[in-house]
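agent> Task received from the user: take the single chain below, predict its 3D structure, and emit C-alpha coordinates. No templates, no multimer pairing.
agent> Plan: (1) validate residues, (2) run structure prediction, (3) serialize to C-alpha coordinates, (4) report one or two observations.
agent> Step 1 OK, no nonstandard residues flagged.
tool_call: predict_structure(input=
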Amino acid sequence: MLTPEASLSAFFDHAPYALEKARKLALLGPHLQHLKTWHEAKCPDYAALSQMQDQMLAALTPANLSPAEQLELTLPLVHVQLFKLFGLKSISDAEIYKTMTSSGTSGQAVSRIYLDQATAILQSKALGHIMADFLGQKRRTMLIIDSKAVLKDPKMFSARGAGILGMMPFGRGHTYALDDNYELNLELMLDFLQQHQAEPLLLFGFTFMVWQNLVQKLKPVLKERGLSLNLSNAVLIHAGGWKKMQQMAVDNDTFKAQLRQVLGSELKVHNFYGMVEQTGSVYMECEVGHLHVSNFSDLIIRDPLTYRPLGFNQVGVIETISALPLSYPGFALLTEDLGQIFGEDDCPCGRKGKYFQVHGRIPKAEVRGCSDVYN
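)
tool_result: status=success, residues=375
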Protein backbone atom coordinates (compact mmCIF):
# COMPACT_ATOMS: atom_id res chain seq x y z
CA MET A 1 0.00 0.00 0.00
CA LEU A 2 1.15 3.51 -0.81
CA THR A 3 3.27 5.37 1.72
CA PRO A 4 4.22 9.06 1.51
CA GLU A 5 7.95 8.36 1.69
CA ALA A 6 7.95 5.62 -0.94
CA SER A 7 5.95 7.38 -3.63
CA LEU A 8 6.61 11.07 -3.08
CA SER A 9 10.27 11.28 -2.17
CA ALA A 10 11.33 11.38 -5.83
CA PHE A 11 9.30 14.56 -6.40
CA PHE A 12 11.60 16.46 -4.03
CA ASP A 13 14.75 15.33 -5.85
CA HIS A 14 14.19 17.95 -8.55
CA ALA A 15 13.79 21.73 -8.59
CA PRO A 16 10.04 22.47 -8.55
CA TYR A 17 9.87 23.55 -12.21
CA ALA A 18 12.68 21.45 -13.68
CA LEU A 19 10.80 18.47 -15.12
CA GLU A 20 9.75 18.48 -18.76
CA LYS A 21 6.51 16.79 -19.77
CA ALA A 22 7.70 13.21 -20.35
CA ARG A 23 9.86 13.05 -17.21
CA LYS A 24 7.13 14.56 -15.08
CA LEU A 25 4.43 12.18 -16.35
CA ALA A 26 6.72 9.24 -15.64
CA LEU A 27 6.66 10.26 -11.96
CA LEU A 28 3.19 11.73 -11.61
CA GLY A 29 1.12 9.24 -13.60
CA PRO A 30 1.92 6.09 -11.59
CA HIS A 31 1.71 8.04 -8.32
CA LEU A 32 -1.80 9.27 -9.12
CA GLN A 33 -2.94 5.75 -9.96
CA HIS A 34 -1.56 4.68 -6.56
CA LEU A 35 -3.52 7.49 -4.93
CA LYS A 36 -6.71 6.33 -6.66
CA THR A 37 -6.24 2.82 -5.27
CA TRP A 38 -5.26 4.18 -1.84
CA HIS A 39 -8.39 6.30 -1.44
CA GLU A 40 -10.70 3.65 -2.88
CA ALA A 41 -9.50 1.32 -0.13
CA LYS A 42 -9.79 3.88 2.67
CA CYS A 43 -12.76 6.13 1.80
CA PRO A 44 -16.05 4.29 1.01
CA ASP A 45 -17.73 7.39 -0.45
CA TYR A 46 -14.82 7.95 -2.81
CA ALA A 47 -14.80 4.24 -3.74
CA ALA A 48 -18.47 4.46 -4.76
CA LEU A 49 -17.84 7.60 -6.82
CA SER A 50 -14.75 6.08 -8.42
CA GLN A 51 -16.55 2.85 -9.32
CA MET A 52 -19.44 4.76 -10.91
CA GLN A 53 -17.12 6.93 -12.98
CA ASP A 54 -14.96 3.95 -13.98
CA GLN A 55 -18.05 2.21 -15.37
CA MET A 56 -19.08 5.29 -17.32
CA LEU A 57 -15.60 5.88 -18.70
CA ALA A 58 -14.98 2.26 -19.68
CA ALA A 59 -17.23 2.53 -22.72
CA LEU A 60 -15.85 5.93 -23.73
CA THR A 61 -12.11 5.53 -23.21
CA PRO A 62 -10.03 4.31 -26.16
CA ALA A 63 -7.35 1.65 -25.77
CA ASN A 64 -3.59 2.28 -25.75
CA LEU A 65 -3.71 5.62 -23.99
CA SER A 66 -0.61 7.81 -23.80
CA PRO A 67 0.60 8.83 -20.31
CA ALA A 68 -1.02 12.26 -20.74
CA GLU A 69 -4.32 10.69 -21.84
CA GLN A 70 -4.19 8.29 -18.88
CA LEU A 71 -4.08 11.28 -16.57
CA GLU A 72 -6.82 13.15 -18.44
CA LEU A 73 -9.26 10.28 -18.97
CA THR A 74 -8.92 7.70 -16.19
CA LEU A 75 -8.87 9.62 -12.90
CA PRO A 76 -12.29 10.07 -11.25
CA LEU A 77 -13.31 13.70 -10.92
CA VAL A 78 -14.26 15.00 -7.48
CA HIS A 79 -16.14 18.30 -7.56
CA VAL A 80 -14.97 20.72 -4.87
CA GLN A 81 -18.55 21.09 -3.65
CA LEU A 82 -18.50 17.49 -2.41
CA PHE A 83 -16.17 18.51 0.42
CA LYS A 84 -18.99 20.73 1.68
CA LEU A 85 -21.58 17.99 1.52
CA PHE A 86 -19.68 14.94 2.76
CA GLY A 87 -16.94 14.31 5.31
CA LEU A 88 -14.59 12.87 2.71
CA LYS A 89 -11.52 11.47 4.41
CA SER A 90 -9.26 8.45 4.15
CA ILE A 91 -8.20 8.36 7.80
CA SER A 92 -9.92 7.55 11.07
CA ASP A 93 -11.14 10.31 13.38
CA ALA A 94 -8.28 9.46 15.75
CA GLU A 95 -5.73 10.23 13.00
CA ILE A 96 -7.03 13.76 12.32
CA TYR A 97 -4.18 16.16 13.04
CA LYS A 98 -5.70 19.34 11.64
CA THR A 99 -8.98 20.38 9.99
CA MET A 100 -8.85 23.02 7.28
CA THR A 101 -11.93 24.98 6.24
CA SER A 102 -12.60 27.01 3.13
CA SER A 103 -13.76 30.59 3.20
CA GLY A 104 -17.39 31.43 2.56
CA THR A 105 -19.84 34.22 3.06
CA SER A 106 -22.36 34.11 5.89
CA GLY A 107 -24.73 31.16 5.68
CA GLN A 108 -22.69 29.21 3.14
CA ALA A 109 -21.42 25.73 3.84
CA VAL A 110 -17.63 25.40 4.00
CA SER A 111 -15.34 22.65 2.82
CA ARG A 112 -13.71 20.63 5.58
CA ILE A 113 -10.38 19.06 4.74
CA TYR A 114 -9.04 16.51 7.21
CA LEU A 115 -5.27 16.19 7.46
CA ASP A 116 -3.21 13.59 9.20
CA GLN A 117 0.28 14.56 10.27
CA ALA A 118 1.97 12.95 7.26
CA THR A 119 -0.17 14.90 4.76
CA ALA A 120 0.29 18.18 6.65
CA ILE A 121 4.07 17.69 6.60
CA LEU A 122 4.09 16.86 2.88
CA GLN A 123 2.01 19.92 2.03
CA SER A 124 4.28 22.18 4.05
CA LYS A 125 7.39 20.65 2.52
CA ALA A 126 6.06 21.02 -1.04
CA LEU A 127 5.07 24.64 -0.44
CA GLY A 128 8.57 25.36 0.83
CA HIS A 129 10.07 23.71 -2.24
CA ILE A 130 7.96 25.90 -4.52
CA MET A 131 8.44 29.15 -2.62
CA ALA A 132 12.22 28.77 -2.51
CA ASP A 133 12.19 29.19 -6.28
CA PHE A 134 10.77 32.71 -5.84
CA LEU A 135 12.13 33.76 -2.43
CA GLY A 136 15.47 31.99 -2.13
CA GLN A 137 16.52 29.84 0.80
CA LYS A 138 16.92 32.52 3.49
CA ARG A 139 14.05 33.85 5.58
CA ARG A 140 13.03 37.43 4.88
CA THR A 141 11.77 40.07 7.30
CA MET A 142 8.01 39.78 6.86
CA LEU A 143 5.03 42.13 6.84
CA ILE A 144 1.62 40.45 6.84
CA ILE A 145 -1.19 42.61 5.44
CA ASP A 146 -3.75 41.14 7.82
CA SER A 147 -4.58 40.80 11.51
CA LYS A 148 -3.20 38.26 13.95
CA ALA A 149 -6.82 37.76 15.07
CA VAL A 150 -7.44 35.58 12.01
CA LEU A 151 -5.36 32.85 13.68
CA LYS A 152 -7.51 32.49 16.81
CA ASP A 153 -8.22 28.75 16.80
CA PRO A 154 -5.13 26.56 16.27
CA LYS A 155 -7.28 23.52 15.41
CA MET A 156 -9.61 25.13 12.83
CA PHE A 157 -8.05 27.08 9.99
CA SER A 158 -9.91 29.13 7.43
CA ALA A 159 -8.36 29.45 3.97
CA ARG A 160 -7.08 32.90 4.91
CA GLY A 161 -5.56 31.75 8.19
CA ALA A 162 -4.06 28.73 6.48
CA GLY A 163 -2.50 31.00 3.87
CA ILE A 164 -0.87 33.16 6.53
CA LEU A 165 0.40 30.18 8.50
CA GLY A 166 1.67 28.55 5.32
CA MET A 167 3.72 31.62 4.44
CA MET A 168 5.08 32.42 7.91
CA PRO A 169 7.98 29.91 7.76
CA PHE A 170 9.48 31.93 4.90
CA GLY A 171 9.66 35.08 7.03
CA ARG A 172 11.03 36.30 10.33
CA GLY A 173 10.20 39.19 12.62
CA HIS A 174 6.57 38.82 11.59
CA THR A 175 4.68 42.11 11.78
CA TYR A 176 0.93 42.47 11.21
CA ALA A 177 -0.32 45.60 9.47
CA LEU A 178 -3.87 45.31 10.86
CA ASP A 179 -4.93 45.38 14.50
CA ASP A 180 -7.32 42.93 16.20
CA ASN A 181 -10.29 44.89 14.84
CA TYR A 182 -8.97 44.54 11.28
CA GLU A 183 -8.17 48.24 11.12
CA LEU A 184 -4.94 49.38 9.49
CA ASN A 185 -2.20 50.41 11.91
CA LEU A 186 -0.88 52.99 9.48
CA GLU A 187 2.02 54.32 11.55
CA LEU A 188 3.26 50.84 12.43
CA MET A 189 3.20 49.76 8.79
CA LEU A 190 4.86 52.96 7.59
CA ASP A 191 7.58 52.70 10.24
CA PHE A 192 8.18 49.05 9.27
CA LEU A 193 8.53 49.83 5.56
CA GLN A 194 10.83 52.81 6.13
CA GLN A 195 13.03 50.93 8.60
CA HIS A 196 13.42 47.78 6.50
CA GLN A 197 13.13 49.04 2.92
CA ALA A 198 16.77 48.25 2.10
CA GLU A 199 16.43 44.63 3.32
CA PRO A 200 15.16 41.53 1.51
CA LEU A 201 11.52 41.78 2.57
CA LEU A 202 8.55 39.47 2.22
CA LEU A 203 5.11 41.07 2.08
CA PHE A 204 2.09 38.79 2.07
CA GLY A 205 -1.64 39.33 1.99
CA PHE A 206 -4.84 38.62 0.12
CA THR A 207 -5.28 40.69 -2.99
CA PHE A 208 -8.10 43.04 -2.01
CA MET A 209 -6.59 43.65 1.43
CA VAL A 210 -3.23 44.52 -0.14
CA TRP A 211 -4.96 46.89 -2.55
CA GLN A 212 -7.05 48.55 0.15
CA ASN A 213 -4.22 49.03 2.62
CA LEU A 214 -1.07 49.51 0.54
CA VAL A 215 -2.56 51.42 -2.38
CA GLN A 216 -5.77 53.13 -1.29
CA LYS A 217 -4.62 54.07 2.23
CA LEU A 218 -0.82 54.24 2.14
CA LYS A 219 -0.41 55.99 -1.21
CA PRO A 220 -2.17 59.26 -0.25
CA VAL A 221 -0.31 59.39 3.09
CA LEU A 222 3.07 59.15 1.34
CA LYS A 223 2.05 61.93 -1.03
CA GLU A 224 0.77 64.13 1.79
CA ARG A 225 3.97 63.72 3.82
CA GLY A 226 6.33 63.99 0.86
CA LEU A 227 7.73 60.48 1.47
CA SER A 228 8.83 57.81 -0.99
CA LEU A 229 9.67 54.14 -0.62
CA ASN A 230 12.01 51.97 -2.67
CA LEU A 231 11.59 48.30 -1.80
CA SER A 232 13.99 47.07 -4.48
CA ASN A 233 14.78 43.87 -2.58
CA ALA A 234 11.20 43.07 -1.59
CA VAL A 235 8.83 40.37 -2.84
CA LEU A 236 5.08 40.75 -2.44
CA ILE A 237 3.02 37.57 -2.68
CA HIS A 238 -0.76 37.76 -2.81
CA ALA A 239 -3.79 35.65 -3.73
CA GLY A 240 -7.58 35.59 -3.75
CA GLY A 241 -10.02 38.46 -3.62
CA TRP A 242 -10.12 39.07 -7.38
CA LYS A 243 -13.91 39.32 -7.44
CA LYS A 244 -13.79 42.65 -5.61
CA MET A 245 -10.90 43.82 -7.76
CA GLN A 246 -12.85 43.07 -10.92
CA GLN A 247 -15.83 45.01 -9.55
CA MET A 248 -13.50 48.02 -9.26
CA ALA A 249 -12.13 47.40 -12.78
CA VAL A 250 -8.65 46.66 -11.41
CA ASP A 251 -6.86 43.93 -13.37
CA ASN A 252 -3.58 42.23 -12.54
CA ASP A 253 -1.44 44.65 -14.56
CA THR A 254 -3.08 47.69 -12.94
CA PHE A 255 -2.66 46.11 -9.50
CA LYS A 256 1.08 45.64 -10.04
CA ALA A 257 1.60 49.07 -11.55
CA GLN A 258 -0.14 50.84 -8.68
CA LEU A 259 1.78 48.85 -6.06
CA ARG A 260 5.09 49.75 -7.69
CA GLN A 261 4.12 53.41 -7.67
CA VAL A 262 3.77 53.13 -3.88
CA LEU A 263 6.58 50.74 -2.96
CA GLY A 264 9.11 51.26 -5.74
CA SER A 265 9.51 50.23 -9.36
CA GLU A 266 11.72 47.24 -8.52
CA LEU A 267 9.17 45.55 -6.25
CA LYS A 268 8.61 41.94 -7.29
CA VAL A 269 4.93 40.96 -7.25
CA HIS A 270 3.66 37.38 -7.56
CA ASN A 271 0.06 36.26 -7.48
CA PHE A 272 -0.76 32.60 -6.81
CA TYR A 273 -3.74 30.37 -7.46
CA GLY A 274 -4.58 27.73 -4.90
CA MET A 275 -7.30 26.33 -2.70
CA VAL A 276 -7.67 24.86 0.76
CA GLU A 277 -8.67 21.54 -0.83
CA GLN A 278 -5.12 21.20 -2.21
CA THR A 279 -2.93 23.12 0.21
CA GLY A 280 0.77 23.03 -0.60
CA SER A 281 0.58 22.56 -4.36
CA VAL A 282 -0.02 26.21 -5.25
CA TYR A 283 0.28 27.67 -8.74
CA MET A 284 2.68 30.63 -8.63
CA GLU A 285 2.76 33.53 -11.06
CA CYS A 286 6.10 34.01 -12.81
CA GLU A 287 7.83 37.23 -13.82
CA VAL A 288 6.12 37.11 -17.23
CA GLY A 289 2.68 36.99 -15.60
CA HIS A 290 1.80 33.33 -16.16
CA LEU A 291 0.59 30.93 -13.48
CA HIS A 292 2.75 27.80 -13.35
CA VAL A 293 2.18 24.12 -12.63
CA SER A 294 4.91 22.63 -10.44
CA ASN A 295 6.23 19.07 -10.23
CA PHE A 296 3.65 18.34 -7.52
CA SER A 297 0.65 19.28 -9.67
CA ASP A 298 -1.04 19.14 -13.01
CA LEU A 299 -3.87 21.13 -14.50
CA ILE A 300 -6.47 20.20 -17.11
CA ILE A 301 -8.96 22.47 -18.86
CA ARG A 302 -12.27 20.73 -19.55
CA ASP A 303 -15.23 21.55 -21.74
CA PRO A 304 -17.95 22.84 -19.38
CA LEU A 305 -20.64 20.70 -21.07
CA THR A 306 -18.90 17.42 -21.94
CA TYR A 307 -15.88 17.57 -19.55
CA ARG A 308 -13.65 16.47 -22.40
CA PRO A 309 -10.08 17.84 -22.06
CA LEU A 310 -9.43 20.93 -24.17
CA GLY A 311 -6.28 21.99 -25.96
CA PHE A 312 -4.06 25.01 -25.43
CA ASN A 313 -5.65 28.48 -25.58
CA GLN A 314 -9.19 27.14 -25.15
CA VAL A 315 -11.21 28.41 -22.18
CA GLY A 316 -12.93 25.85 -19.98
CA VAL A 317 -13.40 24.55 -16.46
CA ILE A 318 -10.21 24.08 -14.45
CA GLU A 319 -9.37 20.69 -13.00
CA THR A 320 -6.50 20.80 -10.51
CA ILE A 321 -4.39 17.76 -9.72
CA SER A 322 -2.11 17.39 -6.71
CA ALA A 323 0.25 14.60 -5.75
CA LEU A 324 0.00 15.46 -2.04
CA PRO A 325 -3.42 14.52 -0.53
CA LEU A 326 -3.06 11.22 1.33
CA SER A 327 -5.57 11.74 4.14
CA TYR A 328 -8.50 12.75 1.92
CA PRO A 329 -9.45 12.04 -1.73
CA GLY A 330 -8.70 15.51 -3.08
CA PHE A 331 -6.01 14.76 -5.65
CA ALA A 332 -8.14 15.38 -8.78
CA LEU A 333 -10.61 18.24 -8.26
CA LEU A 334 -13.07 19.83 -10.63
CA THR A 335 -13.19 23.50 -9.63
CA GLU A 336 -15.74 26.25 -10.29
CA ASP A 337 -13.15 28.37 -12.12
CA LEU A 338 -12.60 29.05 -15.80
CA GLY A 339 -9.13 29.18 -17.29
CA GLN A 340 -6.92 28.45 -20.27
CA ILE A 341 -3.51 26.84 -20.71
CA PHE A 342 -1.12 28.77 -22.94
CA GLY A 343 1.59 26.16 -23.34
CA GLU A 344 3.93 23.68 -21.69
CA ASP A 345 7.70 23.69 -21.09
CA ASP A 346 8.26 26.90 -23.11
CA CYS A 347 7.34 29.86 -20.92
CA PRO A 348 9.79 32.77 -21.48
CA CYS A 349 10.57 32.74 -17.73
CA GLY A 350 12.41 29.42 -18.23
CA ARG A 351 10.31 27.27 -15.90
CA LYS A 352 9.13 23.92 -17.25
CA GLY A 353 5.57 22.66 -17.01
CA LYS A 354 2.20 24.04 -18.07
CA TYR A 355 1.48 27.74 -17.71
CA PHE A 356 -1.98 29.24 -17.68
CA GLN A 357 -4.41 32.00 -16.71
CA VAL A 358 -7.55 32.00 -14.55
CA HIS A 359 -10.52 33.91 -15.95
CA GLY A 360 -12.73 33.84 -12.86
CA ARG A 361 -15.73 31.91 -11.62
CA ILE A 362 -18.14 29.98 -13.79
CA PRO A 363 -21.24 32.19 -14.10
CA LYS A 364 -23.60 31.68 -11.11
CA ALA A 365 -20.96 29.68 -9.21
CA GLU A 366 -20.91 30.20 -5.47
CA VAL A 367 -18.73 33.02 -4.19
CA ARG A 368 -15.98 31.49 -2.06
CA GLY A 369 -12.85 33.65 -2.29
CA CYS A 370 -10.30 33.82 0.50
CA SER A 371 -10.72 37.53 1.11
CA ASP A 372 -14.24 38.07 -0.20
CA VAL A 373 -15.47 37.87 3.40
CA TYR A 374 -13.31 40.87 4.40
CA ASN A 375 -15.01 44.26 4.21
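agent> Step 4: summary for the user.
The longest helix spans residues 21-42.
agent> Done.
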